[in-house]
């Protein structure tokens, strides 16, 4: 169970990173087409924005699992176990609220069929669905974290999923 | 009651100023029972396209929205963006009068009451080179502001480029784009004379804002206050339309003072651009459906 | 009114102190404050402002430069940067600490974001300086200070936002940032030199090299800087050569990085996957914080926080310099718990009229504001660059704050300097205008 959710979180993080690479590809293609063929791809900015917002949430679960989300650890040394419990429970409460809020937003987009309405007709439910998926996985990861605390296991993985992680998260 | 009013425009923008005037008059007319607090400059984080939904769902009790940004929710609100449908500011005013009841109805469907409308000045294209005929437009990389304008410029043989406003000035300075389509206040905001030489009022589409109030908040007021506010809105609207005209005149003067050449586009060129955009307009209307076609035809045969 | 200002602040201290993840905690403060003080649909507001906060095209440069940093980290040539800079800087008191400052200033030429500047340079320099035995505190401090140059040295995303909101020419703003950026970098260099002179132990081991051998090293190292220079040229060239807008130039820089990697044969499926995961983790962490911060900003707006501040200031009837002094205090308070972009968006409508009435122009105020935002980036408890540095070094936040403090003070003195001598800001824009 934990393994399955970790694997899902990892896959989503990979997807989110690749999606950002996709932004690069789109913009570079736009630059060359515009310069040399006089063609401009009108969807690039809007799609990029949607990819970015999706990517932020799709990566959130794995980032939590691997200790990538920043927090103030001033009091951890004082009361290590209670600290993890308190932050975990508060985090879970906020994550649940957030997930519920984003789900309602997405449901609103789904039922109204609302589109971006600026340059493309992208139905907003598409990026919103990714956002909700990311929120759900984030919430699951916090829940599992509390479970790990209960079972006395380490709350975070000791790998980031990279063979050679850049020191930004070390 | 205290109503928080988010405004996507800077505090000095005439639409924000108009909202301030409205707020003051409402305060006066209701003896301070309705107090509207302005949050200009996007300070509440609302950006525009979500405003119809934001007022509908009561995220804010009152809101100012650019109507054609709301087409994701209500396609009919995009009618002023129909390419070359409205040819002058006067015609825009006539259209507003013609469409007013339907606009109120659409707003009511969205759980809000229409208070007043306020237009944006005419759309212009600002270029580096002189524009005389279609050939002189060929291949110009122009920053367009929405889907409709993008299609229009495309049909005129230009290369429309979508860029966020923040990227426009550096791109212009560096030469990544050679022209911008926007109205005169934005031309002044961006000090266009630093990079561009000509301005032409192409008026391909129009932008119209509406001030609406959430019906639940509205219904909490007693009848006298409702009537007083409606009256204030009705009295002020003509002033606000005039303010838009004045704003355009003022900014055109600034642009000219700074050395830009302002000229009308010839009737032939406008006719030709409109002709090129005709299939586009038909397609948009087709997509909008019978209701929109009825409005357009009704207005044209008024 | 005072309750609706003080209670959110108390909630902030409690929530962030609890150790909850900042990206969630900031939302929590907004949720609680609104639930307590206002009768509004909090859930809907949260969803909408998170959506709006992240769907801003101006933000796109951030993931692009993060991806670029991830890729740069996996290139071979970046390892050579140190050996190339080493012979040039080693005789300067403070030695390779200056690579942090020069590196950030150079990187700021291609990056419009200060967090990305800090992380891009820091991830290269921190392990190197650690390995050479430099004092950790000064390593982190120079990075904290110089990283914020990403905003001040053009291009700068935040300047563009300010320019649009305040109706100030963005090009003039860019020009206005150059001299203050340069001077500030020199102040940092000066501080490092003084520290190194006073306490030589802060500097890592430097073996003496004979003069002629040193010059040979300097020259032979230069080609190793070539890919870095190519990248700067790719960004500047694509932008000033009329090919790309500033954000597009960031994507172009990523593309150029990939091309360089292909040349030096460091490109593989594995590097790409690792870069993707790394990017995802950083983008996710920063994105969640930005989203939450934009909701918190909205909540503050609903609570009338900005207005309370402005009313207070207006009532004081101050002299221009006293007003600036007071603004500095206010911005430091705001900056301690709000993110830079939010501070700008929230305060321009209130403060700009106050400042222009006192005789400063909007160009000067722009640079002042950028500096205040830079201070906010490195002031606790909420400071984006502090978080980046924490991620980078895995040190406790308190230690990073202490390390950043001297640089915070230098920047503060610098702000006072431009308040007394506004010419520092206007001289280059005036030249540009005249020419
Ligand atoms: Na920069
Ligand atoms: Na701060």
TrEMBL record, chain A:
Ranges for domain Tripartite ATP-independent periplasmic transporters DctQ component: 23-150
GO biological process, one term: C4-dicarboxylate transport
Any single GO CC term annotated in Swiss-Prot or TrEMBL for this entry: plasma membrane
Residue spans crossing the bilayer: 12-33, 45-64, 85-112, 124-144
Membrane topology label: Multi-pass membrane protein
Keywords attached to this entry: Cell inner membrane, Cell membrane, Membrane, Transmembrane, Transmembrane helix, Transport
Cellular location(s): Cell inner membrane
Gene Ontology molecular function terms on file: transmembrane transporter activity
Superkingdom of this protein's organism: Bacteria
Oligomeric form and interacting partners: The complex comprises the extracytoplasmic solute receptor protein and the two transmembrane proteins.
Name of the protein: TRAP transporter small permease protein
Lineage start: Bacteria, Pseudomonadati, Pseudomonadota, Alphaproteobacteria, Rhodobacterales
TrEMBL record, chain C:
Topology in membrane: Multi-pass membrane protein
Subcellular compartments: Cell inner membrane
Pfam families linked to this entry: DctM
Annotated GO MF terms: transmembrane transporter activity
InterPro entries xrefs: DctM, TRAP_DctM
Keywords attached to this entry: Cell inner membrane, Cell membrane, Membrane, Transmembrane, Transmembrane helix, Transport
Keyword flag Electron transport: no
Domain of life of the source: Bacteria
Membrane-spanning residues: 6-37, 58-77, 97-117, 138-165, 171-194, 215-237, 243-263, 283-303, 315-334, 400-425
All copies of domain TRAP C4-dicarboxylate transport system permease DctM subunit, residue ranges: 10-424
GO cellular component, as recorded: plasma membrane
Keyword Transmembrane: yes
Main location as per UniProt: membrane
Family affiliation: Belongs to the TRAP transporter large permease family.
Function: Part of the tripartite ATP-independent periplasmic (TRAP) transport system.
Quaternary structure and partners: The complex comprises the extracytoplasmic solute receptor protein and the two transmembrane proteins.
PANTHER family, alphabetized: C4-DICARBOXYLATE TRAP TRANSPORTER LARGE PERMEASE PROTEIN DCTM (PTHR33362:SF5), SIALIC ACID TRAP TRANSPORTER PERMEASE PROTEIN SIAT-RELATED (PTHR33362)
Protein name: TRAP transporter large permease protein
UniProt source species: Pacificitalea manganoxidans
